[in-house]
Amino acid sequence: MAFTYTRSTIVTRALDWIRFRLGDTKSDRTHLDDDEISAMLVGRNLTIESVPDDNAAAVRLAARDCCLAKAAALGDESEIVVTEVGTVKNVAADWFLKLADVLENEVGIATAGPLFANPKAYSTTFVQGVDALPDEE
Fold first, then answer.
1. How many Å from the N-terminal Cα to the C-terminal Cα in the chain?
2. Which residues of 72-85 are buried (b: 16+ CB within 10 A; e: fewer)?
3. Cα separation of 33 and 4, whole Å?
4. What is the pLDDT of the chain when averaged over all its residues?
5. Phi, psi angles (nearest 5°) of residue 82
6. Worst-scoring range by mean pLDDT, 7-11, 53-57, 129-133?
7. What is the three-state SS of 20-46?
8. Which of 65, 95, 98, 112 might form a disulfide with 40, Cβ 3.0–4.6 angstroms?
9. What integer pLDDT is reported at residue 114 of this predicted model?
10. Residue 101: per-residue pLDDT
11. Domain map of the chain by residue range?
12. What is the CA radius of gyration of the chain?
């Protein structure tokens, strides 16, 4: 099972970004191997070398897919078995499902346009020292 993680490339490499978000940063107790994460990225038309910020929605969805896969694997285990990280496996599965929800919600944020796209939709405000006094305009 291959494992690579480089903290300095979290913002430039999708594999490291996903490992960071999943808390999968320790080589002695991994959640997923490189090939499993790569498969999820390929499913989103990305590679492990894709830049996370350039592909924000797809990388987050790939990370969500990783969470769902890990939750499915852990959910299949007995409730009394303890994982390498010291939690009951179905509790860990629930944690991965919650993280998957968080990542899915971030997709909307990552793809949302700027709030100032239609300035006429918002009321203007007076800023003392910046704007001219309303009666002087």
1. 70
2. ebbeeeeeeeeeee
3. 8
4. 81
5. -100, 135
6. 129-133
7. HHHCCCCCCCCCCCHHHHHHHHHCCCC
8. 65
9. 54
10. 87
11. 7-112
12. 21
Two tokens at 98?
A: 């919650």
- Cα–Cα distances in angstroms (integers) from residue 21 to residues 13, 67, 76, 90, 120, in the given order: 13, 10, 23, 20, 38
Give, in degrees to the nearest 5, the angle at Cα 17 between 6 and 27.
45
> Distance between CA atoms of 67 and 13, rounded to whole angstroms?
18
The whole-angstrom separation of Cα 46 and Cα 39 is 9
**Which tokens sit at 113?**
């346009």
In the chain, where does DSSP find H-type helix? 14-22, 34-42, 56-75, 89-111
Q: What does pTM read for this prediction?
A: 0.70
**Residue carrying the six token digits 């006094």:** 133
Closest CA to 61 of 108, 3, 94, 11: 108
